[in-house]
Design a protein that fits this description.
Order of helices and strands of chain A: HHHHHHHHHHH
Oligomer: heterodimer
Helix content of chain A: over 70%
Helix content of chain B: 25-40%
CATH topology of the largest domain in chain B: Rossmann fold
Strand content of chain B: 25-35%
Shape of chain B: globular
Largest sheet of chain A: none
Number of domains of chain A: 1
Radius of gyration of chain B: 23 Å
Number of helices of chain B: 11
CATH architecture of the largest domain in chain B: 3-Layer(aba) Sandwich
Strand order of the largest sheet of chain B: 5-6-7-3-8-9
Amino acid sequence: MDTFPIPAHSNLRSYLLEAKYEFIRLWRTPSFALPSLLFPILFYVLFGVILSGGRGGAEIARYLLATYGVFGIMGSALFGFGVTIAIERENGQLEYKRALPMPPGAVLIAKMAMAMLFASITSLLLAAIGAFAAGVELAPWQWLALFAVNVLGVLPFCAVGLLIGALVGGSAAPAVVNLIYLPMAFLSGLWMPLSVLPAFLSSAAPVWPSYHLAQIALKVVGRDAGGPLWLHFGVLAMVTVTCFLLARRRLAASR
Amino acid sequence: MTMNPPAVLAELRGARKRDGAQLALDGSDLAVHGGELLALLGPNGAGKTTAIGLLLGLLDADEGEVRLFARSPQELAARRGVGLMLQAAELADTLKVGELLDLTRSYYPQPRSVADCVALAGLDGLLGRRYGKLSGGQQRRVQFALALCGRPRLLFLDEPTTGLDIEARQGLWKAIRELVADGCGVLLTTHYLEEAEALADRVVVLNRGHVVAAGSVGEVRARVDQRRIRCQSRLTADEVSRWPGVRSAGADHGRLEIVADVAEPVVRRLLAEDAGLADLEVQRAGLAEAFIELTREAA
């Protein structure tokens, strides 16, 4: 006999509300929402539309449409996970929520949903600018595929962000994320083609996960370096799983 | 149906937990029943946080048994009977009070209505305000509302009145007493011994991972059979402290203050040696003295 009958309860509403309030929280934090959404847009307008005008402009705009998409979604995933996890771990919020009857994984799932939502917004804004201001022409499947790459591409960077958030404190996290984010974007050819970089940097690009996501996006628009798709997917899957497992171990050990 | 004794809602049996090289909890027993408030007392590092962490499933015991509603605290179903207020935890400060309530209520199968939460915790006019913009006392009230919003059968209250003014503290005490009268079990940790004295049905004193005393407030107080004597006298604390039967003596705002095992012989000698002695007062030791004595003995 069960001494303490506790009524059954569906978790679905908790998952939905957790995601909704995670979004509201980020939306009300301008220091996160503004740079995550505006930087890739501003850069794209500057380098893809204004400075690339003239000969070969549409080609450059097409390349940058793919790479700024990756740049943008990488930022919201790294910051949305790395910084918020670090802060919530430090101020006791994660522990409080773990003690509450919150359904398992709700915090992580909510943050992942948010990263995907921010990625969708970034992707749609870039596509609109590309199509209407930069003269990028793509087949419908290419537009769709690019959107899918951007939304699903947040996963490895969520995992990297989670690991950063599990390792460093709340005040150090933004600096650590920037230290990883900006050089990695540059060295993966997200701001300018790798051919512009010195050979020793461009040949090292495949060590960065962002390089592989960018290559998938570039393959969609026909501007990739020719590496096999399975390799790019394989590297991204490995990064995702490794970082996630390391982060989980670290979070469990800090109990 | 016969009346059963109040059910054990949460318990530790011989729980042992190592924290690095130190034993944070060394084979301790603890049980919280329905309709009772159990105060868990002890100096910092005594093992209170570890005990709560075990009962909430935040920590795993190295040895012994931890049960929450006759289940493992790791089970979601067990924690659905629990509400909690953690002193150290901050909440999302960009969310409004009503939004925090909405989210926390969703974790529970039969939550209290928002109106009930507002009334019980005194949140009038706060629902639309952002948590981060509230005063410390208002934030405490919100935390209390979140603790009781799920209609829990067991409440964990960790230093619930820290930072509250007297009126707000009395209000919270009243609400806690009402919940206990309704059959809710409460595990309270507090630094305010007068709070434990005012609210607790039972007290457990922890020191260095051991339970050093357990029982009703009266029983624990009786463990330390001491009297406190105060008076105006020309005698100095220094000379009185050397008298037999005197545990300690000191001066407090110009008055002599003596702690003694038995009051009468000391009072007799005081009156004999100082004919001008005035303002004499004799008191039983309170929980505070018992607490200091118990945790010192064990150290």
